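Hi everyone, sorry if this is the wrong subforum. Our group has a chain we'd like a structural model of before ordering constructs, and none of us has done structure prediction before. Sequence below.
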Amino acid sequence: MFCIRSLNNIQPGIWATLFMSGFFIFQSCQSDKEEREYIAQVYNERLYKSDIPEDILEDEVKLDIYVNQWVERQILYYRARTDARIDQNEIQHQVDDFRKDLYYYYLEELLLKEEIDTNVSEREIQQYYNTHKEEFLLKDFLVKVLYLKVGMDAPDLEKIKRIYLLKNPKDIEEIIQYAKIYSNNFYYDEENWIYFDDILKEVPLKDVIEERFITQKKKLYFDDGNYVYFLNVLDYKLKDALSPLNFERDNIRKKILNIRQKEVRKKIKEDIIQKEYEKGNVTIR
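Answer:
Right subforum, don't worry. Here is the predicted structure as tokens:
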């Protein structure tokens, strides 16, 4: 009765305020309930929708895999955690060690981004190439090549059989224009090298003796009943020869950056440790 009398005495404006407050609280609770809707539960652990990446939630197959993996992991974790034969103190000791390493890993990555110079000059690339030539001995044949694949019903094949030999400067322009329209596959680069094995993946050559074929700068065309293939070896580098610098440039740049990273990582670690010694934060007895 006390509550009823008190409510009856409330002013209309206050009623509206209380109603709206209650409405928003109700909406908030509903929203929280939806936000915290869980998809799976193993013992007391729940997998909530809000814990799952959006791209996985939108894909039914990925979501099913994700949920099953989560469930399996929780089951195995619970089973191992409750086994009395496992030394919990040793587990905690290793977890603590891993946490320390993980913290330092993230710190090191942040400092590395701030301190490392990612610019590699042409002079540095050339110097590395000249002083590490043993690293650049070829394990396979390199070629500069013209390769063209067209259907058996492509027009002007007799003309292509003449001009793919590239005896005249204008021939390559005609080949390129022809390839844009009729080719099923086409490759030509007079500046850069390519492994001959990569060409053989596209051209059905059988029982070819690679070294003889390449060194003789073979020019051939043939068909397999469905397609006509044109192949013109323009230049080559043999196995065990020194790989050209322009073929190795990106590789050398990565090598130089890896060396820099190791040096900067070492310096970061030494600087951090040295500063703590200097501050008197280290005592060894």
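For your construct planning: Residues 87-135+246-285 form one domain. Residues 157 and 228 are 9 Å apart (CA to CA).
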